[in-house]
Prior knowledge:
The complex is a heterodimer of chains A (329) and B (267).
Chain A: E1 3-16, E2 19-32, E3 36-40, H1 47-54, E4 63-70, E5 73-74, H2 80-89, E6 90-93, H3 107-117, H4 123-136, H5 142-146, H6 155-167, E7 173-177, H7 185-202, E8 205-210, H8 213-219, E9 222-227, E10 230-236, H9 237-240, H10 247-255, H11 294-298, E11 304-306, E12 309-311, H12 316-319, H13 323-327
Parallel strand pairs in A: 3-8, 3-9, 6-7, 7-8
Antiparallel strand pairs in A: 1-2, 1-4, 4-5, 9-10, 10-12, 11-12
Chain B: E1 6-17, E2 20-31, E3 35-40, H1 46-53, E4 61-66, E5 69-70, H2 78-87, E6 88-91, H3 105-116, H4 122-135, H5 140-144, H6 152-165, E7 170-174, H7 182-199, E8 202-206, H8 210-216, E9 219-224, E10 227-233, H9 234-239, H10 244-251
The structure holds adenosine-5'-triphosphate (ATP), adenosine-5'-diphosphate, iron/sulfur cluster and magnesium ion (2 copies).
Amino acid sequence: MTALLEIxxxxxxxxxxxxxxxVLRDVSLTIGAGEAVGLVGESGSGKSMTAxxxxxxxxxxxxxxGAIRFDGRDVLALxxxxxxxxxxxxxxxxxxARAHTNPVRTIGDFMTETLxxxxxxxxxxxxxxxxxxxxxxxxxxxxxxLGQHPHELSGGMLQRVMIATALLTEPRLLxxxxxxxxxxxxxQAEVMAILDDLRRDRELALLFITHDLELAGAVCDRTAxxxxxxxxxxxxxxxxxxxxxHPYTAGLVAARxxxxxxxxxxxxxxxRPLSAFEAPEGCAFAPRCGHADEVxxxxxxxxxxxxxxxxxxxxAVALRGRLAxxxxx
Amino acid sequence: xxxxxxxLGVVGLRKEFGPLVAVDDVDFAIPVGGSLAIVGESGSGKTTVAxxIVGLERPTAGxxxxxxxxxxxxxxxxxxxxxxxxxxxxxxxxxxSSLDPRQAVTAAIDEVLRxxxxxxxxxxxxxxxxxxxxxxxxxxxQMRARPGxxxxxxxxxxxxxxxxxxxxxxxxxxESVAALDVSIQAQVLNLLxxxxxxxxxxxxxxxxxxxxxxxxxxxxxxxxxxxxxxRGATAAVLDDPQEPYTQLLRASVxxxxxxxxxxxxxR
Lengths: 329, 267
Ligand SMILES: Nc1ncnc2c1ncn2[C@@H]1O[C@H](COP(=O)(O)OP(=O)(O)OP(=O)(O)O)[C@@H](O)[C@H]1O
Ligand SMILES: Nc1ncnc2c1ncn2[C@@H]1O[C@H](COP(=O)(O)OP(=O)(O)O)[C@@H](O)[C@H]1O
Ligand code: SF4
Ligand SMILES: [Mg+2]
Ligand SMILES: [Mg+2]
């Protein structure tokens, strides 16, 4: 598969309480045309900042290191019209749909704005396209919906409107940042099914951000796990659960309660997740890792390639096969 | 008596908001030391049930009996309000808004002790605050901090410690672990299990997360549009759901190998 998006050793510093602090460190990730990749991690691990860096939506005064290429173009160098065209090819869907709409504007105005102002489409044509896309995401009475305001739509309905809007410019890559976290579980299943169908029908590449490993596995061929601003493991999604390569991935799997059984105690990971700038020298996960030794505390591990996967752990090879076991109580 | 005593029971519970019937003829009973979950779609009336139980909302009809006493009408006087608070406590979803930002953790817990353990003197209260902090896994620095300096998981522990300070017989948990990161959620779930063993407290858990429901409860009721549509032992209902809505709920949970499917007639 040829790479559509290449992120190479991306580093980002942001202004936090007056000082520049590192929030992403050495993030490398590739997405092929039509490929779905999951990005999983706990809060503050840097998932949103990764997606924002790709869409050039970082906060002002961010410092960026490394390279991002889309279809061969240098994304970090894009300006003006070239940047605007790029954003038509790489669309964003946010977690909180309501916060990204304007309560006094109609769904129709919101959906067709880019087509009218940038693509110079006439209003009836823009509305016709919007209605067609609403039908694709399962909203049949699109014409009526265009006249409504955001508060008249449920959360699940509004998120479908956001997905349809993102698709209006016919992007080749969709960045979906926890698009279902605010939805209840039955609505989440519906929205995920729509995303999955769209992606296949349109050969759309997808970066799907979530904190739920199983959810990522349901739609993504490959999943990257983030911790403290770094990708700590990358692997075929179906292997993450039973054959994890990094102790943190194994810990995440083991900490989740199960829907089909109970255990007196869950195998909780001690401590709390850290942001990159809070992480110690050496391995960022060392303070919480049951396998940490002097090497882990002293030196930051590089990425080791193992079979088809990769892990940022000194002992990944030695621990292989024992990680999932060790957590099973 | 042949029947096991219920620590909390509701009978024919109903709540109307204008023309909307938010809760419609709800019955359930939690045995002493038992744990019951309410699941159901958004807007099905779960939080409204919880708010009526803790006296934040007045039922339109029906009875609520906790520790053998009816509490379906507003408490008459401070003493009765205090007694009710000593029987049932609630922990909300949002660890950010449920604490006073100006109050350090120790003061926040002490405040509850002053109300519900009036026989303790200052020294005894200080000792008890320390004990409760230890029980929920907060260290001394965290105990001196204000909520703003704590993480979401730590704040949720503070909220649980405050609830425990009233030595309630029942704790209502309304999506209390939903906002927490996976690794922190596991810590809080373990803490709740430990507290139950240590104190014999009962839980009424409201959650969209069926795995959390399975981990924490023995009984479950499923609500849809204000009514109970299915009930039973948690394991039985989750393994073999009978009602179409429960089946849909169960099928919507992503587990290994799950594939999302579009369904007809979606909202
Ligand atoms: N104070 C109120 N005034 C009017 N309507 C209300 C009020 N509180 C709740 N409702 C309505 O009552 C119904 C039940 O709401 P409730 O908050 O109990 O739902 P829930 O099951 O807790 O949902 P969720 O899963 O989204 O938390 C909803 O239709 C809600 O809009
Ligand atoms: N606008 C901002 N200014 C400064 N720091 C930020 C900003 N947004 C996020 N951060 C910090 O960047 C880190 C990564 O955040 P984020 O990418 O949002 O994490 P995630 O999406 O994985 O939860 C965190 O430490 C967060 O506090
Ligand atoms: S490098 Fe060491 S501390 Fe880090 S994850 Fe691997 S074993 Fe654990
Ligand atoms: Mg985020
Ligand atoms: Mg609720």
